[in-house]
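Hello,

Following up on my earlier ticket. Below are the two sequence lines again, exactly as submitted.
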Amino acid sequence: MDIGQYLELFIEESKEHLQNLNQNLLELEKNPEDMIILNEIFRVAHTLKGMAGTMGFSKMSTLTHDMENVLQEIRNGVIKLNSKIVDVLFQCLDALENYVNNIINTGNEGEQTYEDIIKILNVIFESKTLDVSNIPPIGEETEVSGVDNEHFVIDEYAQNVINKAIDKGMNAYKITVKLNQGCVLKAARAFIVFRTLEQKTDVIKSEPKVEDIEDEKFGSQFTVAVVSNEKKENLIAELKAISEVDEVIVHTLTSKEVSSQPQQNIPEKILPEKEENLQTEEEKDTPKAENQTTKPRTGKTVRVDIGRLDNLMNLVSELIIIKTRLEDIEVTDSNQDYGEAVEYLERITTNLHDAVMKVRMVPVEMVFNRFPRMIRDLAKELGKKITLNMYGSETEVDRTVIDEIGDPLIHILRNSADHGIETPEKRLSKNKPESGTINLKAYHDGNTVVIEIQDDGAGIDTEKVKQKAIEKGLVNKDIANSLSQKEIIDFLFKPSFSTADKVTDVSGRGVGLDVVKTKIEALGGVVEVETEQGKGSKFIIRLPLTLAIIQALMVILGKEKYAIPLSSIKEIINIKPEDIKLVQKKEVILLRNSVIPLIRLDKVLDVPKIEESENKQLTVVIVRKGDKFSGFVVDNLIGQQEIVIKSLGKHLSGIKNIAGATILGDGQVALILDVNSLAV
Amino acid sequence: MEIKTSNKIDITDSKQYVVFRLDTEEYALDIQRVIEIVTPTTITRVPKAPNYVKGVINLRGEIIPVIGLRERFNLPVIENTEDTRIIIFKVDEATIGGIVDSVAEVIQLSKQEIEKVSNFSNDLSLDFIYGVGKVNERIVTLLNIDRLVHHAKSEG
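Thanks for your patience. The regenerated structure is below:
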């Protein structure tokens, strides 16, 4: 069998686990005493170790192993958690992330061994444990089997069977089989173990369940309870003969043990904690709770490759196109049945479209998740105190948008942390709380998703921005003084513009905001800034819910049809040729006292000329680009239509002025205009 | 090894090629790269694209760029005729159409029947050409379509 299929699973799961680890570490830093969080971290580290081991990623497994050692000691109360240890744990997390990234990119974990981290871990582990007797020398081996033993609850039914068997003179054993770390086909190996066992014994119970073992839902070991006539030694010998079985631990169960063991052991350790874990977490409503519950939910969700979803989406798009086509036919055909059928079809396609879109929706949490860690690190680096509050992380956005908004958001957050939030001393002197706050908010607003990043920092010094703009020659002094606050803030979005007095590692090199703006505009969104000096600033990002299907205005240029996204259209007006004025040889019109530059689309797009009588009315589509407006001169309007955006393909992707293409009801291709690159 | 069906005995050494005509010459494309051959449909012009990119077509819901091979080879441009076809082929992961004067047939060429083009010229315009095939006194030019399009990209 191919290891590749497991690799994908491994990557997906590792990512989830690392995310989980990240969240929990952050939580732990806040509540160092919280055993529930600690246990969760331990569990994740343990699972990761198991997974890495199975896949043969030995470096990763070594690192998690040492991590686990330290965690175990913390759990036992031997080592006291302090911020240094948390830092080390974070470093471990980074290292693990690197491993996983390497695996994603190259298929193997890479050469980096992170010996320094391992060394520190060992120092922590050894320096503390040496004082204490009673701690097993090799933490993991015994612990792990210990852990699993306590998982192993013998229920009443099993108890009875065991009791009866013992009465009959048979022996009852609890057998823990540990498979080799490098074992690839664990399920197959386990199957052989079971078959061997079944020849000699009756398996009463197994932990994890047999089905789970078949599905490979277990670490590197499993435990079974059996009754048998065989002697303990014989069983051990049989099982050890199976290749890739590392260790076989057999305990003889007596009827006494059977009846007394289960209840006593449970309330103390792992199992109850875990259960409790679930309960408290549900109550607490932290993101962690969700991660916890994903486990039992696995049966109800399916991982689907995004490519397949895209394919489904394409088919639905096709359906919408053909529906539009049918609607067009209806105009000439007055058959009522036909009309009804089309109407029904329309309802179905709309629902189908919604359903498919929903499948593609993912919570913004996916992006937000990494921010708490980032802000924590930033705060440490900058010597500031920053609290990040996140609201509405369950807000759902199309997958395509999610992939793109991460970087812009990071830029803005870094800006807020670096330029926005002041140092604790400064804050105290200004009667602000010592710790700065950044609020990250996501919510739906009509057909758009809004993401707000608000900080209670210094705000933007518009005077300073103005001075910089003059210095850089972006604007002359006289004009600068008459600019509104909004126009001044716009300078921030100009390429290589930074007001920071010194360039820090974090930001201030002036490569930030213009990139943010371009990126968000490329997604069909807008960025706005509100700021009040001394009080803080707020970045508001508006993004379309989806990028796949939009409302557009169809226009005619010459003999060609083009689509203009409706979201960027402000209004449509008719003008007479004499309304056009010239400013610096450029055509403009005056609309309600504002000057709007005109763009002759047919000229820009080299549309073949067709003879037309002059002096007639011109149709102008007023489009919005940020805060500014431009007028597109078009020959004619067709109307508003729902269009499916398709890419022009790799070979034409670099073409300017065209954002994509769509297929019209008649099967023809119409190009979608890129308003951002066309407008001035 | 890329051939699924073949009538000839020597399977391993020969490949099938789609032969098409441009102006007076015959060219050939590896059949493994050809997806299908369609009659010309409405082509939507793409502004600002290189001149030989005739535009895009809708092939069952997929938008596919179409290249005029006459324009690409600097041959005189003619109006479409009844025989004009668009050959849809694969380049990397993308799909591209090429307009040709007509499609003739599918031929089988063994390695011995193909002569590398570098054998007789150093001309740069022969970059798109992979070799020359000889069948029954006919000569067909084997095209290197990867070159054809990669070039297109760097120029565009």
